[in-house]
Design goal:
Layout lengths: L1 E7 L2 E10 L4 H11 L5 E12 L1 H17 L1 E5 L3 H10 L9
Parallel strand pairs: 2-3, 3-4
Antiparallel strand pairs: 1-2
Helix pairs in contact: 1-2
Amino acid sequence: MTIEKKINGEIATLVVCGRLDTATAPELEAEVDKVLPGLKELIFDMAGLEYISSAGLRVILKAQKTMNAQGSMRLTGVNDTIMEVFDITGFIDILTIE
């Protein structure tokens, strides 16, 4: 998995590519934890994400809970495979997906 950070004031975009699973979720969680303080908008660009496991879902949910209290979060570029995971798990109802 690769993560590219783009920070513009109180808006951060994390471009996530590859596989978000048990091995890589801690890396994403660490990056999210770094950018969250003072953030008003968090964007996950998932156009290059091929796979997400329950460990990856946990990181996304944790970020969503934090951003609910301090701003907004949205996911962009979600492919059909990842969208199906969000649909089956019910995440589609709690995430803003564009």
